[in-house]
Write a structure and sequence with these properties.
Blueprint (H helix, E strand, L loop, with lengths): L2 H11 L5 E2 L1 H11 L1 H14 L1 H6 L5 E15 L5 E19 L1 H68 L5 H36 L5 E2 L16 H11 L1 H21 L5 E15 L6 E15 L7 H68 L4 H35 L5 H8 L11
Helix pairs in contact: 2-5, 3-5, 5-6, 5-8, 5-10, 7-9, 8-9, 9-10
Length: 443
């Protein structure tokens, strides 16, 4: 990457007027992300299962008709022939009275809508987590770049100092070479950091559809509160009962239970009200002369049907649905266990992340003091150049680790809420309120 390209990209990253925040990113993602849009379309498609199942309980009206060309020859009791067209139509209404499988299918349609709603809500939570992950990945890449640039500046200053000291004979050429190597290494890392920012920007744009030059960073005083309730087992219990994947799988289990009953109902009789009305227009060839016939017919009554033997196919379908019920029960248990594990992992991520953040903040203060002490010691001759360079590297590495710990803690909080099925827009708003007014995050 050329110096001009680096300079242009640096200007783009630091432009506050084009900065995006988490709420902007989520809003764009809801309208653009392909995974979420697919889940939303799937939910709308699944919602049609309910009216489709309801159709099995409502009347069915059928109109049928025909027109035929007839060529008729009569030999007894007299001889004759005729060629004519006949026409007929019939209107039939069928109202199910007893079809247990149709009622169970309607209940399945309602449960399929419940499962689809849970799946859509789960897809929305997943989108929020992916947006937050991509957003913080970009923020961390910017922090890494800022840290490398600060380290590069410090290495340049130390190189200049080493060169001046070498000219007056107070240090050896080794000090110059060490400072030069650190400066060159920082320059190489700077190029890699610019490249990583570009990768992270495009990763965020895949979700949001916006190629944002920069994102707003965290405020210096931004600190996530401890989870409430402040107890891991409470969150595990909430995850086992409230996780959206568990809710969806619970609906799938109820669908499977009704499927067993529906297949068993295939052995039961069905009773329908059937009403018909029709007209027929034809030609009678009985008698000495053919004559036109027009006939109207209306009927109403009950129609009874009892399956007696269907080649053992229905028995096999009953067994199949029973095995699928066992599968649905196992899938529900697996979903509960996964939700509980996700809650435990996220809880530990939050609690340990907060402790790690506090420890790294203390380490940052110590590293800063150590750097100042090494600089002073170098000036008075009790420390050598490599001591200062190592102290600088330790300081900037601690800054990067602190930024990573803060982002990981915030993401763990979102994952904890998601595991319990409680992640919502208010959590994103609270997180968005922790962002600074410009694109540069502070530590």
């Amino acid at each position: 990457m050329s110096r001009i390209a680096l300079a242009v990209l640096g200007c783009m990253i630091s432009a506050p007027v084009l900065a995006a925040d988490l709420v902007d990113a989520l809003r764009n993602a809801l309208a653009y992300d392909a995974q979420y849009l697919a889940a939303r379309a799937q939910r709308e498609a699944s919602a049609e299962r309910k009216p489709q199942a309801l159709a099995g309980l409502l009347p069915a009206v059928t109109l049928s008709g025909n027109t035929l060309y007839n060529d008729t020859t009569v030999s007894k009791p007299f001889s004759g022939s005729a060629q004519y067209n006949s026409h007929a139509w019939t209107l039939q209404l069928t109202q199910p009275l007893f079809r247990l499988q149709n009622w169970l299918q309607y209940e399945q349609g309602e449960l399929q809508v419940v499962a689809a709603d849970a799946q859509l809500a789960l897809a929305r939570q997943d989108l929020m987590l992916r947006v937050a992950q991509a957003y913080f990945d970009l923020l961390y890449a910017q922090d890494v770049l800022a840290s490398i640039q600060a380290q590069k500046t410090a290495a340049r200053e130390q190189l200049d100092l080493a060169e001046r000291s070498f000219e007056v004979g107070t240090v050896t050429v080794t000090d110059v070479h060490e400072a030069q190597s650190r400066y060159d290494l920082a320059s190489a890392q700077e190029i890699a950091a610019f490249n990583d920012i570009e990768v992270k920007r495009y990763a965020l744009s895949v979700i949001t559809g916006r190629l944002t030059p920069g994102v707003r960073g965290l405020r210096v005083d931004a600190a996530p509160p401890r989870p409430q309730p402040d107890d891991m087992q409470s969150w595990v219990g909430s995850a086992e009962s409230g996780n959206l994947a568990v809710a969806s799988q619970g609906a799938v289990l109820e669908i499977a239970r009704r499927e067993v009953k529906r297949q068993q109902a295939g052995h039961l009789p069905t009773v329908d009200i059937v009403a018909t009305h029709g007209e027929t227009s034809s030609l009678s060839v009985l008698g000495a002369r053919p004559s036109d016939i027009e006939q109207r017919n209306s009927t109403i009554g009950l129609q009874f049907s009892l399956p007696i033997f269907q080649g053992l196919g229905q028995q096999s379908r009953v067994k199949e649905s029973a095995h699928l019920l066992d599968k649905a029960q196992a899938d529900l248990e697996a979903a509960r266990r996964n939700a509980a594990q996700s809650a435990r992992q996220a809880w530990l991520g939050v609690v340990n992340g907060m402790s790690q953040t506090q420890a790294l903040q203390a380490a940052l203060r110590s590293s800063s003091s150590a750097l100042e002490s090494n600089k002073l010691g170098y000036e008075v001759g009790v420390r050598i150049n490599i001591d200062v360079l190592n102290a600088q590297q330790q300081l900037f590495a601690t800054r990067r680790d602190l930024a990573k710990a803060r982002y990981d803690t915030l993401l763990a909080q979102l994952r904890l809420k998601a595991a319990a099925g409680q992640l919502g827009d208010e959590d994103f708003l609270a997180l968005d309120a922790m962002l600074a007014a410009d694109t540069l995050s502070s530590q």
